[in-house]
Input
Amino acid sequence: MLIIPLERAIDWRRPPVVTVLLVLINAVVFFGYQAGDEERFERAADYYFASELPEIELPLYLEDLERRRAPHLDRLRRATAEDEYVLLFAMESDREFMAALRESRIVTVDHPQYALWQGERAAFEQHLHAASYFRYGLVPQKAEPVTFVTHMFLHGDLGHLIGNMVFLVLAGLAVELALGSLVYAGFYLIGGLAAAGLFFAFNLGSAVPMVGASGAISAVMGLYAILYGRRRIRFFYWVLFYFNYVKAPAYIMFILWLGHEFYQIMFGGPSNVAYLAHVGGLLAGALLALGAKAWLPGLNVAFLDAGAEQERRKTAFAEGLRLQADLKIDQALAVFEDLHRQAPEDEEVLTQLFNAASLKPGSALQHYAATRLLARAGLPVGQSHDVFRRYLQTTGGKVKLSAPALLRLATRYAKGGFPSTAQGILGALTRRGEPLPGIAEAFLAVGEAWRRQGDEQRSAACLHQATKFQ
Output
């Protein structure tokens, strides 16, 4: 089962600095410091299968699984028939068995090959311990304080790294923008420590190292779910062969995430995934989120509410379009005017406000929307030209634009490939008989536009007009 939030895209105007740094640090550690680990493990595995250890340990491991009535035993036997490395991997990941093995409770002192086994097992583990996992991973049996932090920045393989970083980005960018970078960084580390603490407390005898950022990332996911709370968030889910999107209150996802971890702990069988660490991270993240909501003055509630507000605006916009299509113009205008008042920079809303208002030609709202739209330098010249032509036609030429605004439009339309409209605007301005700075330059631009289109006669006429105003 896979459930991931897909509510917010990255806003690079307010970049999630800490999330980006965490991704970079994890990548640098993996591709730099951990670069030789795969070869070290291959050498360790080669040593193992060249020694007497498989003949001694693996049959005893299968017997132990039978004694424990492990539900995955048959599946493991079938996999082992194809690849004996599978059984070694399963055994090394079985914390309960490995603790007993290292305490000489599996291969006991009265075993005929005990001395041989002890020497070869020590040599094998020396090969294993050359890898970064054993140096800076969290090994509960002999945990050093620094490894409670360093394990968060190590990963087992490329897939492990990529999977963790995807979840970190998807949940982390929203949490960072809600909490602020410094608080988020602190909560990330606290969550990772809590995850490691719970794992450590239930695996005191384990000599298997835990590595990976998933405990800390689980804390981020717990933060995400509880910070958003009852707000409905879009999630992508994948169960077996079925996947889809769903909108649901965020706290429900927390319950599902936590339930999934407990299910894996109880029924998943031996695994190299530290599900207990995930539980610790999720719970820590949830508690930190509750504390932040209660006591953190800098919590960005507006950011958390932005998704719901965006959905409300989207619904209202669709309703405005429906009312306009049904020719319920006054109601449509009320909807678009309200949306425009809330977000004056929303160009799409302003365009629809103009479209609806144009069905009531000459109205104050039409003049207002047209003036605002045509004043936008960022509006594509083709779209601006369409708005102007419609405004001109619906008002019978009675546009309420100042002379400087018309001059700017004429120059823009000339340069944008609409010399006929530009020349018409300039003609109307010259008939007013008012001196207007910049009109000569506008005529030059129109003349150049006609020349580019191959109309030398009109080009010459505009150049002649330009000389009259210089």
Remarks:
- The radius of gyration is 34 Å.
